[in-house]
Write a structure and sequence with these properties.
Elements lengths: L5 H132 L5 H18 L1
Length: 161
């Protein structure tokens, strides 16, 4: 068994002094280092969480910007299509009005040409009739009388038409 003597008492005192010294010189500094490392780890963890939150916010802004850009692209395309459609209609209407104007001008030119040709032909026929009548009838009535007869003939034909 264990004997209680001075040796045991000194051993216990030495052990207590050794534990106190180890506590003061070893465990306390190690605990400080561990607490400092824990604080550093907590700071880095908080920083990482902040960076993650910042990245999430940036990602949300990017996605919002992307969707806004997509919507803007759709609006621009719709606007361009509308403008192209309006321009197409404008060009077609302009072409139609130009074609109608050209057709009207051509019809009017044709009518004027026809009227001029008919008038020239009537004048030539009148002159030929006057010459033929002068040769047949002679000098008794004259060219003025023949022209008057021809004009009367033409007015009767025009009334029949």
């Amino acid at each position: 068994m264990l004997k209680l003597d001075w040796n045991l008492l000194f051993t216990v005192i030495n052990l207590l002094i050794l534990v106190g010294a180890m506590w003061y010189f070893l465990f306390k500094p190690v605990r400080k280092i561990l607490e400092a490392r824990q604080a550093e780890a907590d700071r880095e963890n908080a920083l990482a969480k902040a960076k993650t939150a910042e990245a999430e916010a940036a990602k949300a802004r990017y996605e919002k910007c992307l969707s806004d850009t997509e919507e803007e692209r759709r609006q621009i395309i719709a606007k361009a299509r509308k403008q192209a459609d309006e321009e197409y209609k404008k060009i077609v209407n302009n072409a139609r009005s130009t074609a109608k104007r050209i057709e009207t001008e051509a019809t009017e030119d044709a009518a004027r040409s026809k009227a001029r040709i008919v008038a020239d032909a009537e004048q030539e026929i009148a002159d030929m009739i006057a010459i033929a009548t002068e040769k047949n009838v002679g000098e008794r009535h004259g060219a003025g009388y023949d022209n008057a007869l021809y004009e009367q003939f033409l007015s009767e034909v025009a009334e029949e038409k």
